[in-house]
Specification:
alpha+beta; two-stranded antiparallel ribbon; Ysc84_actin-binding; Lipid-binding SYLF domain-containing protein; SH3_domain_YSC84-like; TAT_signal; globular
């Protein structure tokens, strides 16, 4: 897809050194680079979730995972800027059923944010949004939402003695870079319909994957097991 004035692209460095383009304005119709791209993202999300549950500084995250309504996992979230900055990455969303039981199969999304300021350098992080309320979970079912406007988001507690904010969504990150943290307030989350279709073999909406659960793919079983703390 060619770049346009209304769709500014930032280069995002993939987890295996592959470069992928992220449309900061958001676009759900971008085709996967290959048929394996969605499966690779699911595998990377599984690794990221494993990293979080094993990190001693993420004890609160692990202890409260059984009560979560959903998880949006972004294995590679890049924040970079030289005067004009941008941040974003591709991720997968899994949710619990209405009874708080089993985890769904993943739906594919893009998280993107733009900013203007005197910035320099870059930071790559693993990011997980823990959805804490039914309101937050349901907000994810549309084609697009804005964090902080359509649903509340706050930084998740990290380390011993950290205070817990009351919010629909808590944002956790693990990173080593030049920035002290990643602010997701104002970020836009959009569906990746082409990736959903590629992974499940037919056109599906997020509600079909996350609520009706009319599709499945065994490649996502390790991710579902990890979320259930069975791995």
């Amino acid at each position: 897809m060619h770049a346009t004035l209304s769709r500014r692209r930032f280069l995002v460095l993939g987890t295996r050194g592959a470069a992928v383009s992220l449309i900061v304005a958001g676009c759900s119709s971008v085709e996967p680079r290959t048929e394996e791209a969605p499966a690779d993202l699911v595998a990377s999300a599984t690794t990221t979730l494993s990293n979080f549950t094993r990190d001693p500084d993420m004890a609160w995250f692990r202890d409260n995972l059984p009560a979560a309504q959903g998880l949006l996992i972004v294995p590679t979230f890049l924040r970079a800027g030289f005067i004009f900055g941008g941040a974003g990455g591709n991720g997968v969303l899994i949710t619990r059923d209405s009874a708080g039981g089993s985890w769904s199969y993943p739906a594919f999304y893009t998280v993107a944010a733009g900013s203007v300021g005197l910035q320099a350098g870059a930071e790559v992080a693993e990011v997980i949004l823990m959805i804490r309320s039914v309101r937050g979970r349901d907000a994810m079912l549309g084609n697009s939402l804005k964090l902080g406007a359509d649903v509340g988001v706050a930084a998740g507690p990290v380390g011993a003695g950290a205070r817990v904010a009351t919010s629909d969504i808590l944002a956790f990150s693990r990173s080593r870079g030049l920035y002290g943290g990643i602010s997701l307030d104002g970020s836009v989350i959009t569906t990746r319909d082409a990736w959903n279709a590629a992974f499940y073999g037919r056109a599906v909406r997020p509600v079909d994957i996350l609520v009706s659960r009319t599709v499945s793919n065994p490649q996502a079983e390790p991710l579902r097991d990890m979320a259930a703390l069975r791995a």
